[in-house]
Write a structure and sequence with these properties.
MetI-like fold, 12 helices, mainly alpha, 77% helix
Length: 271
């Protein structure tokens, strides 16, 4: 029944709108195909089309570079810690704002969304000014703080939407049956928001892993994430194929959590 409804809904979409959507998808993803193609080219210095040949040697050079592994490790650590902070703070904020009513609630919700709504350079400058104002040295932890500011938004939006769709009578019934607060959270609330947490966490990880602008403003001199490392490699013509290979690694690492997050959100919306 659901598949028939979806097919009927698809048939009602105007053909012109379908073509426009397809053209937009091609425009957005065509550069990724170019990166994929030139990650295997045999030409080192120039972008010749079509490529004179295909090879996988650049991945071997990439995997042999210690600076690549250091940058990749830093990116993974920052993304994991920032995602953990986002899950904790975003969930607590969503729980506080989902059903409560008080003066200024909408303004507070807007403040939580602003870091991801504003241009990255504005967020980066604001974070750098704030860090300097408090006299904090730029380090690994300042990068984590900078990433957590916009990662919180993805978790907050997913969890607050799920909490608003969750029947409050379930929580009341749990408390009426003698369950403690922690038991209610464990057996009632967490099962209801589990997929929202997973989707929000995966999106937060993907956003943090490939962030460039905020990292540029919040990192110290000794910290280099993978996107920053790739940016530095662009000025070295002999390393262009290696940089394309690294870009392909970033695409794969970020695509997987985004795909799972999309899948989980689709499953929830169809139930």
């Amino acid at each position: 029944m659901r598949s028939k409804f979806q097919a009927l809904r698809t048939e009602k979409i105007p053909r012109g709108l379908r073509y426009m959507a397809g053209a937009a998808l091609v425009f957005l993803h065509f550069p990724l195909l170019i990166v994929l193609l030139y990650a295997f080219t045999t030409e080192r210095r120039t972008y010749q089309f079509p490529p004179p040949g295909l090879t996988t040697q650049w991945f071997g050079e990439l995997l042999a570079r210690v600076d690549f592994w250091n940058a990749l490790g830093t990116s993974l650590q920052v993304a994991l810690v920032a995602t953990t902070l986002a899950l904790l703070l975003g969930t607590l904020t969503a729980a506080a704002l989902a059903r409560s009513r008080f003066f200024g609630k909408e303004s507070i919700s807007l403040l939580f969304i602003l870091p991801i709504a504003m241009p990255g350079i504005v967020t980066g400058i604001a974070l750098r000014s704030g860090i300097r104002l408090f006299g904090i040295e730029f380090s690994y932890w300042t990068i984590v703080i900078g990433h957590a500011t916009f990662c919180i938004v993805t978790v907050f939006n997913n969890v607050v939407a799920r909490l608003r769709r969750t029947a409050y009578t379930q929580i009341e019934a749990s408390m009426d049956l003698g369950a403690t607060t922690f038991q209610t959270i464990r057996y009632v609330i967490l099962p209801n928001i589990a997929t929202a947490l997973l989707a929000g966490g995966m999106l937060a990880f993907a956003l943090s892993f490939d962030e460039v602008i905020v990292t540029t403003f919040t990192r110290g001199t000794e910290q280099t994430t993978l996107p920053i490392w790739m940016l530095a490699q662009l000025v070295r013509p002999r390393d262009r194929p290696v940089t394309n290979a690294a870009a392909l690694v970033v695409i794969v690492i970020t695509f997987i959590p985004i795909l799972f997050a999309f899948r989980f959100t689709q499953d929830v919306s169809e139930t």
